[in-house]
Amino acid sequence: MVGHTETCPRAAESTPRTLDVLIERRARRQLSEARGAIEPVLRAAIASLADPMDRMAGYHFGWCDADGVEFAGAQGKALRPALTFAAATACGGPAQEAVHAAAAVELLHNFSLVHDDVMDTDPFRHGRPTVWRVWGETNATLLGDALQALALGVLSDGVPEPVTAEAVIRLARATVTLCRGQYQDCAFETRESVSAQEYLSMAAGKTGALLGCACALGALCAGADHRTVSAMHTFGCEIGLVFQLVDDAMDIWGDPEVTGKPAHSDLIHRKQSYPVVCALSSDTAAGRELARIYQARQPITAARAARAANLVEEAGGRDHTAQRAATALQSALDALPPDIASADLTALAQLVAHRDR
After folding, report:
1. Contact 238/222 with Cβ under 8 angstroms?
2. Residue 110 falls within a domain, yes or no?
3. Domain tally for the chain?
């Protein structure tokens, strides 16, 4: 059964440096249960695609190899579906009512991942060649388009009828906002400077919009009132900001063996991530040296990326990112209405804030 409705303390006075073992177990159990609950819906939706697109999707989701042979590969975290289920049960609804909404947000998330890999020319995901590396950029783009369409179909076919229209509108609007955020993220790569506020606005679209939508859909499926649905949306948006800030930090200082991502990929691509934005605007010697690396014509090698990572930290980028993530986490927890069973949502929020992959 997905979702647990007992209550727990809302939040600590300050963000802890490590995640409590019991909270982590609770959160990871939710991720596992959410993944299992939505997989039949995902597989049925993807089976409706013609070959080789169904095979491409199965490969992307970690179900099979490039030839379509079943493969027990690494799969996504299923954070967004878990948030949908947690929001539904927090509002007193049965988790089963939110299965299609949870599957829809996962399909939309993977639409963005497939396109993101093409735009960033990322060669690997979960330790395997990305879809565009196997089938080409054009086919990968088409697969992303198909996943987006499937998301809307799954949502409209399966959510409770009284909220179908609002649910579809929310997912469609989240898609537009996500695309705008992704556009801003790409545009930042050609600019010499980006303000912290511009970055946070981009992150609210690229990452926050879909997490906010995931939580709002869960509340809708549970029959929550508009006040509660809005509060859930705010919670999810703030958690999305936490997720993006932690992701930015992991790209620079995470262990590639743990994260599954190439070392310093953002730095090599001259990404204006939040730690970099903070460092470049720090008016420090380290920040000025980092600016010279970013503005140089030659490619950023692995060695120069490692130097850049040290400079970002020296200029205060790491500390500023941790502080801003802690603020967003607290804002998310403060947004939760006091009359809901928030234990699962709180556990997932803490996991997002303290994850290492």
Report:
1. no
2. yes
3. 1
**147 located within any domain:** yes
Q: Can you read off the two tokens belonging to residue 33?
A: 């249960």
pLDDT value of position 18: 65
Contact 208, 315 (CB under 8 A): no
Query: In whole angstroms, what is the distance from residue 308 CA to residue 355 CA?
Result: 23
80-130 tens-digit pLDDT: 999 999 999 999 999 999 999 999 999 999 999 999 999 988 888 888 999
* Stretch (H or E) spanning 68: none
Please check whether residue 271 lies inside any domain of the structure. Answer: yes
What's the pTM?
0.92
Look up residue 291 and give its two tokens: 């600016």
The candidate with the shortest Cα–Cα distance to 216, out of 157, 158, 174, 179, is 174
On whether residue 98 sits in a domain, the answer given is yes
**Cα gap 28→38, rounded to integer Å:** 16
For residues 133 and 100, give the distance between their C-alpha atoms in angstroms, rounded to a whole number: 30
Residues 282, 169: Cα–Cα separation, whole Å: 41
Range of the domain at 346: 21-354
Residue 75 pLDDT exceeds 90: no
Looking up residue 111, the CATH number of its domain turns out to be 1.10.600.10
DSSP string, 155-188: HHHHS-GGGHHHHHHHHHHHHHHHHHHHHHHHHH
Q: Give the span between the Cα atoms of 243 and 232, in whole angstroms.
A: 16
Residue 259 pLDDT: 80
- pLDDT tens digits, one per residue of 161-217: 999 999 999 999 999 999 999 999 989 988 888 999 999 999 999 999 999 999 999
